[in-house]
Amino acid sequence: MVSSHIPPHATALLVLADETMFWGRGIGAENTVGGEVCFNTAITGYQEIMTDPSYAGQIITFTFPHIGNVGTNSSDNESAEPVVKGLILRSDITAPSNHRSEQHFNDWLKEKKITGICGVDTRTLTLHLRNNGAQNGVISFSTRKEFNCDALSAQVRNWPSMGGVDIAKTVSTRKIYPWNDGPGPHVVAIDYGIKRHILHCLAAQGFRVTVVPCDTSAENILALSPEGIFLSNGPGDPAATGVYTVPVIRQLLKSGLPLFGICLGHQLLALALGGTTAKLPFGHRGANHPVKNLQTGHIEITSQNHGFHVLPDSLADTVEVTHMSLFDGTNEGLRLKGRPVFSVQYHPEASPGPQDSQYLFEQFRQFIAEQSRKIA
What we know:
By secondary structure, this protein is of the alpha/beta class. The protein folds into two domains: about 10-155, Glucose Oxidase, domain 1; about 170-375, Rossmann fold (3-Layer(aba) Sandwich), CATH 3.40.50. The protein has ten helices and 17 strands. The strands form two sheets. A ten-stranded mixed sheet has the order 8-10-9-11-12-17-16-15-13-14, sandwiched between helices. Strands 1-2-6-5-4-3-7 form a seven-stranded mixed beta barrel. A hairpin with a 5-residue loop joins β13 and β14 (about 300-310). The N and C termini lie far apart (about 75 Å).
């Protein structure tokens, strides 16, 4: 039925799969959108978060209130076009006050056709998701206050789950392209939903970088004569994406080339090494996650965005767990013993965020240099 209890201020409604409802004010494009509702605790970087391909199919709840305070610009996008489904805020979008701002955040949302809702008690919503797990939701933004709650509830109940779905193909490049013509070794980056700042970090190491689609065969990758392989971040269930990527990664491992994976790339490497993955109750998303490097004992403050994780007990004896979350003890990194093959669950490139883990890109460069000396 059409709701007759709409608050006077409301122009938008969020409906969760468990029929919890939150009224608020619409922002961005006027529309009705659905996706998995999750939360991010970062206090900055909203544009980078909104354009991160790893958020494909999701609605982001920002727990920090001052969203919009630096505006938006053409330089901070992590992908050509955002694939996030929507966003949820506590406060109205803040007016921009930054010398790099080129456009108001709300105007940017409208231009990108992204729908959101503000005026929501995001503390209550976040606690609800923490206690009950991430779940699907629908945001309906209607300036005419036309809300059919029964229809929206039915829509969210029928929305597909993230589990078992390969989303990487929807965000990966469709063609091979060069990213950086550096003076150093040639690295092939497999794009499962790669963030641009990761490519900047690879380029900063002097690598010549070539980006290939997520379903590129091992034969075609090796035909490019790489000296290192990079497995990128990306969205969706790693087990579903692994159906076609794991055989490729196993072939690449046989080549003996140094290999480095981040986020989804970490999970896919674990699957290729015989491990298994599972969905987390509400995921890790934020820029202040403490991770312990088990090899050095150092604590790294990390940026994270993932809904699935690697089960460390499923890994073979040939694989060493290298990093662990101090929030919940989940796996955050691994390496193949005796081989220049490693990966981490978090984002060492941050962008923006802590830079404690930038050394991993240097480690990748060192592995490639050592391998080149062995071949020589």
